[in-house]
Amino acid sequence: MRTDRMVTPAAISCLAAVASLLPSLAQAQAPSRVAKWMGSAGVSIRKTFDGTKEEQNPASIFYYRESTGSDPEVTAIDVAVKFLEKELLKQTSQMSLIVYPVVDYHRSSNTTSRVSKAGLTGRTEFRPWGLGTAPAGSRALFLPLALTVIADAKVARDWKSRTDETRYGGQLFLTSVWRGGPGAPLRDGSGNERFRYYPYVGADRYRFAGATTDTNLTVGFARLWADSWLVVTDSGQYVQLTGDLAARHRLSRDEGIGRQLADAAVGLNYYPDGTGNFGIGIEYANGRDASKRFARRERTALSFKVKF
Amino acid sequence: MATLPTEKEVTAYVIDTIAAFIRRSASAITPQMELAKPPLKLDPNQLTFLSMSLRAYIRVHNAAATVTVSDTKKDKQTVGGISTVVYSRIVERT
Lengths: 308, 94
What we know:
heterodimer, A: 308 residues, mainly beta, 12-stranded antiparallel beta barrel, two-stranded parallel sheet, 55% strand, globular, B: 94 residues, mainly alpha
């Protein structure tokens, strides 16, 4: 398995220049107005919104082009935009149902799996009961452990491989208020958040349409996402360590794709302003990439991070 | 229908709910703190559950009123800000 490094000396110089601008960029007024507009429009930017809890991971953007170089383009772009979030069932005390679209784009110049892929997803989030304790006088069901069910359907096009992809699936995860429970932050002696995790399970049905053949695939998965704040104060979080481990099992018949499709990724991000909007990070991923038809890849990428 | 709470009681309820979600003492939470920023740092999932808790609380006092995730996820929304929203929704009928 080939290992690709998207870190040429010239690219490092480019990122260093960008990194030096991050503090002033984070303090600029324009990003605050952008954030306000995005908040009012229900727009969020992340690496992905596929419910993998990578929605806590910032979008990463790295693009470098040197026309005279042996490898003219070095690219790693993973960005997803969620907008027009709409809440249904807003007159009920107990349940929550939210729907929204997501547009995402992924680009990689990895020579073993070049990708230029855009997708559109329609997603619903359903919470059948509340978290914690019901308010006095309410008959709504509230429990210290609450369930979230996500169902979505996606269409995507990869211009590099000239393939279309459709996917629909469902997954669920738990949130608790118990110490050490999923979604409940663990804090240090000063009260600063240090660690949080979410485990979830689900299944997806894929259809990959190529020029001559179609591939249908059903995959079940169990996943664990976690992050830890290594440098944090009461007013800001500066250095984030993330981890995403996925155990996937092909449930459908053999379609030329292996039965075990595990994947793992760890990242280290630095946010100079402590709010998590802008930063720089490095990520190592090894395994089967679900965004690239479960192609095997091992990748280390240094990139600019954006999260709203 | 229960007696209408005061704005102070509403704020106390909001703080107690947030404290339970983020596992922090209520005394460490002030109305000026932003919901989605440190030190509270409620993630989108928790903000949705917060809206559910506040909705159930509102409807105890005013069955025709509600609050949605757009209220809790509003940019720079604070503890005091969402408390004011909840209180205003409760007293809307009067």
